[in-house]
Hints:
two-stranded antiparallel sheet; mainly beta
Amino acid sequence: MILNANGSLRVKVTTSGGLDDKGYQIHPTITWGDPIKCNIKANTKANIGITNNDNVFETSSFEVLIDKQIFDANMVSLERDGVQLGEFQIQGEPEHLNIVGNIKFYCKSIG
């Protein structure tokens, strides 16, 4: 259990589109999952981030801890202390902290 939860996240869920039985396009739908309690900490270190496909280093905006669970997300919405922080892209693969039963990941603003 997250000892110092100071916020929550919601996972962005995209339901794929396709074609209906008459061949018309069905547009994908985007929804947000249920809130997950988390600990959100601003990243103050310039060396924490990920190199993108263009070989440009992108510094992370936040470090996020959640309780260990099945977690498969590319985008999250973050809220801390009642303030909506925005939508963020998860950088790299989440790290499973098995000893403490948490998952840690970094994310960056998409704006």
